[in-house]
Structure formats: structure tokens, C-alpha cells
Amino acid sequence: MIEGDKKSSSDKSSTAASWNEGGEGARVQSMGWKELWLKEDWWAIWLGLGIVAVAYWFFANGSSIKWIAILPPGKWTDLSVVTQHFAEHYNQYLAQFIMWSLIFGVSIKALGFKLSEFYPSFLFIYVFSIVIFVVGQNKAVTNLNLEPPLLALLLGMIISNFIGLPKWMDTGFRVEYYIKTGIVLLGATLPFTLIVWAGPTAILQASIVSITTFAVIFFAATKMGLDRRLAATLGAGGAVCGVSGAIAIAGAVGAKKEHAPIAITLVIVWAIVMIFFLPIVSKYLQLPIGVAGAWIGTSEFADAAGFAAANTYDGYANSPGIAGNSGDAVNAFTLMKVVGRDVWIGIWAFVLALISTTRWERKTGSKPDPAEIWWRFPKFVIGFMLASIIVTLIASHYGQATFQKTVVPAMVGPIKDLRTWAFIFCFFSIGLTTRFRELSQAGGKPFLAFTTGVVVNVILGFILSTVVFAEYWTHLSH
Question: Which residues neighbour 22 within 8 Å (Cβ) at sequence distance 6 or greater?
């Protein structure tokens, strides 16, 4: 969001807008140093790395932040256990709500949104997130593999489509902000050595799928007579990074104002479908945990949806016939999607801007600036990498056994729990901003073109994950 672009959520009438406030990808001009406090990506970095720094400070001084990183009891069967838990720990939840409210509130204000809208909306999200956690951690529910993220998504969609909420509450439904913060915190739980080891494989696999998917969607769309700028925006939405990719490319090629919302709508539709489809099929085929995570990372169209699907499949670890360790799916997904696909946004934007201005709009176009690669680059990925490096350096001072016994429970574990809260905020917000009436307005031809790419994406991703690079993903955590 550029300076002076003050908006309340009542100004944003579409589901697409709700998924992308902050608009990092939509701007084609650099803000200079103002980016550091006017973009969600940078705020996600400051927030995520700040939590890591505070967690380490407490750990280094013989304490921990786990008091404020509290979660509801897991796998409970007796409701009295839940009521007793909240009777004893209500003050911790109050403190946690205040913590989230303060750190999110500062950035929301800086981004130009109204705190009078954000705080009531976030209170709504937080209270329902507690309810989602409690229900999702009931033993009967966990046995059905209905993880809290999926419950959050479903509940959000029910509320949004069958009950309805005031439009101003969208100010608190910061989908991409919550997921970006969660991704930065995820870096603190994913060793950098793993990123270095699997990174080349992830980049190669992601590049093969991304180029192929983009080519298929673009070709199908143009053959159907759609504007090349819309075709490029659709192709980026399916090939690179879903919502952010569609916004970045729409800005790069000078797309019409309705092009990005159409692409984002289709991304949302298929992302939600894949949350359920990919884990179910993977389980039926008894894919190893890491292999399924790589397939999800290759074939999902949005970070938040992919994390939900990968998190669900991690729940199948130790199930009969399914090899791999819990966490492999999320780690493989992260390497494929965040490391493998998201980092290419800037490059795609520059290349398509070059093609657009030199081939499609020679008379009116201006020469693209190579700096656009940096402007489009998803900055939160830097935070993810830095968090991983920081914790890896801390771990290097301990033996494996000592690290698992002391550092993990006192420092890494609480960071992981706070990351879980951020993800729940995100998934619930997705549901709350997914309105079926708006999703139906995308039209027939864009849907067919995008769906053609979806089919190719899923099949090619499956082959690469289960055959070509299966050895890497099967032994990811070994």
C-alpha cells in the first residue's frame, strides 16, 4: 500500500481484495525505504524475527515464552478437562490476545487501516480460534483427521455465506499477513541445512511445473480468445504463487482492473478444492509423508491452503502403510512452495513486463526496469530464511540430544505454537472472506483455461514427486 492510500474494509467489495490487502505485488514502483514500514511483507519479517529474538532472549536468560504461547489441551475426551484448563489459564489467553493485538495493531495502523475496525474484528477471530482449537483437538475429531486449519476454513465459510458479517470486519481478516507471519516463524522450526540440501531439487521441480503450467494456461486462454494480459495473469496465478503471483503479473503487464480479481477468484476456488483432494488421494495411495508434501507444494495454488493440506497429511504419520515422520509434509511443502515457487514471482514479473512492453504494447509501453525483480520479490521469504539461519546457528552450539532436550521445549516449541495461532487466524480469515456469490462471477472461459492448467499441474506434480524426485522427498528428514 502506498502512502496516503488509506482504506477501510468497506471500500473492498470482493473476495479477491480480501485476500490481498497490502498489495505488495500490485505496485510497479519502488517505495524506497518506505517499504520497510508500508508493506505487509516487511511487517511480517519484523514481527516474526521479533518473536524469535524475544524467544531467544528469554531462553538465554534461563526462561521461556511458552507461558504466553499457550494452546488448548490436546486429544481431550472429557469436557471438564477443557473447562478446568481455561479456569486455570484464562489469564494467559488474555495476555496472548493483548500481545497479538498490540503487535498486529501497530502494523495495521502503519498500513493505513482503521484500528476501530481491526480490534473488534480481531477479537472475533481470536475467540473463535480458541473454539476451533478446542473442537479440533477433541480426540474423536482428531481421529477423523479434521485438523484445526480445516475446521477454521469450514467454519469461516459457513459464517460468511450463511450468516454474514459487516463488511468493515474484513479489516481484521488479514489472510496474507497472517500466513506470511506464520511462514517467517516456520523458518525458526526448519533447519537451514535442510533448505540448502533440498533447495536445488525444489527449485528444479518447481521450475518444471511452473513453466509448463503457465504455458498451458496461457495457450488455452489465448486460444479461447481471451486478452493476453488476462491470460498471463491467469497463468501466473496457477504457475507461481497464486494470489500474490496474479497481482504481481497483472501490474507487470498492465492488465485491466478486473483481470487480477478473476485470476484470484479461480486461485481461491481450486486452492480450497485441493485442500481436501490432495491429502485424500495421497492417503488412498499411501504416499510417504514427504512425497505427499512435495506434491501438495507443487500442486496447491495458495500458501495458506497448502499449509492446511500439508498439516492434515502430517497427521497420517505412523499410520499403517504410510512412511515418513510428522512434519515432513509441511517441510516438503515449504521447500517446494515457499523456496521453490514463491521466490520466482519477481523474475516472472520482469520477464512478462518485458514481453508486454516490447511485443504487446510497443506504442505505449515503457522499458521495464530490472529492479522490478526486487520490487516483486516476496520479501517475507527473506524473513523465513533469516529465522531458519538464526535458529540453526543457535543449534550449532549444542549437541543433537541437548538441543532436543533443552532448546526445543524452551525456545523452538513456543515459537511453533505461536506459528500455529497465526495459521489458524489465516485459515479462519480465508473462510470468512470466501463468498460463493462472488466466486461465481469469474466466467466460463477463464475457468476452463485455468482448470486446464490445474489438471496438467496436478498430474505433472504427481509424477515428479512420486517418481522422478521421490528419493529426495521420501528421505527428507533422514
Answer: 1, 39, 40, 41, 111, 174, 176, 177
